[in-house]
Amino acid sequence: MRDPYSVLGVARSASEKDIKSAYRKLAKAHHPDQNPDDPNAHAKFAEATSAYDLLNDASKRAQFDRGEIDADGNPKFAGFNPGTHAGASRGGRNGAAGFSAEDILKEFMSGFGGQQRPGGGGSGGRSAGGAQWDPFAGGTASGAHGGKGEDIVVNATVSLEDAHKTSAINVRMPSGKMLSVKLPEKVEEGQQIRLKGQGSPSPYGESGDALVTIRFAKSKQFRKDGHDIRVDMPIALYEAVLGTKVRVPTLDGSVELSLPPGVDTAKSLRLKGKGLYGDGDLYVNLKVVLPKGGDADLESLMRFWRDQKPYKVRD
Predict the structure, then answer these.
(1) How far apart are CA 21 and CA 25, in angstroms?
(2) Which residues are registered as beta bridge partners of 247?
(3) Which CATH number is 242's domain given?
(4) Structural domains counted in the chain
(5) Residue 90 DSSP label
(6) What is the pLDDT of residues 217-249, one digit of tens each?
(7) What is the pTM of this model?
(8) What is the CA radius of gyration of the chain?
(9) Which of 74, 78, 107, 123 gives the lowest tally of CB atoms within 10 Å of its CB?
(10) Is residue 56 included in any domain, yes or no?
(11) Would you give the distance in Å from CA 149 to the centre of its chain?
(12) What is the domain range of residue 181?
């Protein structure tokens, strides 16, 4: 990976807030779900996520700034040159001159805080991440590459009804895989649900995690106001004058609401405890709807009112 500061477009002196803000912008711009026709989006998104993971970890960031690890989180084995120890007897694995295998291991590991593997033997050790690492083996173990795959961020759009009922929702991963995800109780906008092992795979160890970010869908009939819910209820003019009963939708199903004669449509009617999660209330906004196309009798009545029974509604 390139220099993580360059990837995120921030200075080396950037604050945690600056780094987080930069990552959010890049993640939003390059998220695969938002760029289905861009074959490079996934790579750009993964690179930004990897850069953020490193710089967001205070310990790893400090190690990187000191030159102890590279941009991929791999230890740097700078300063070791077996040829400089001339004159000492050969020993240890791979015929390293001047030092035993245990001595060489100590020199390799001292640069980035590693320790000799318990039990001696000198043929292996543990990286900063804790995974076993053998500097003399032919391959590269998971610890040298961080082991775990990268985490991925996935947006999930949730209806107010599903959130209220703590339902399970279907979430599509960038790979196309569909997962059923149980919503936590009283889930909030922007909250993340971690799905262990559902992130990017790693050839060296376990897969990363998927971070499902919750977004509330825009409802056709409900308006969210914190945990309060608002709904518009159309009524006829004669219902407002004479009173009636109407069926009002709620997140728990419809309920019957009695409107008194001459109900004040300027005020919302409150149904206590009928808001989101039962913490908020439901507010019903009454809207008088006149007949489409007009009505001659109604117009005649209104002229009579205007001329014979006017009343003041404005200051």
Answers:
(1) 6
(2) 256
(3) 2.60.260.20
(4) 3
(5) B
(6) 999 999 999 999 999 999 999 999 999 999 999
(7) 0.53
(8) 33
(9) 78
(10) no
(11) 17
(12) 148-217
